[in-house]
Amino acid sequence: MRCRVERIAAFVDDLVHNRRPCRFKASPEEMVALRAAAELASVRPGADRPDRQFVEDVYAYISVTVRRTFR
């Protein structure tokens, strides 16, 4: 099992690199640090915009669905 510092560092690293953090049972002290990291990540410029690949995937899915529906 990784120590507290390593778990928090991995969580922050995942946020910085726009990855989904691994889940783990956090202590109350760890929760304070994790919430602060999440809040800081949410105010990063562009954090309110959807991921470009996500938008392209949704557009492709809708295009295929519409073509199938109206054939």
Q: How is this fold's topology laid out?
A:
Blueprint lengths: L3 H13 L11 H15 L9 H18 L2
Helix pairs in contact: 1-2
Summarize this, please?
The protein has 71 residues and is an all-alpha fold. It contains 3 helices and no strands. Helix content is 65%, strand content 0%.
List keywords for this structure.
71 residues, mainly alpha, 3 helices, 65% helix, elongated
Give structural notes:
The protein has one domain (about 5-70). The chain is built from three helices and no strands. It has helices at about 5-15, 30-40, 50-70. The radius of gyration is 18 Å and the shape is elongated. The model has no long low-confidence stretch (mean pLDDT about 90).
Structural class: mainly alpha
Helix content: 55-70%
Shape: elongated
* Overall number of domains: 1
Q: Sheet with the most strands?
A: none
Mean pLDDT: 88
Uncertain spans, ≥5 residues at pLDDT below 50? none
**What fraction of the residues are assigned to beta strands by DSSP?**
under 5%
Number of helices: 3
Instruction: Compute the number of strand runs.
Output: 0
Radius of gyration: 18 Å
Order of helices and strands: HHH
User: How far apart are the termini?
Assistant: 55 Å
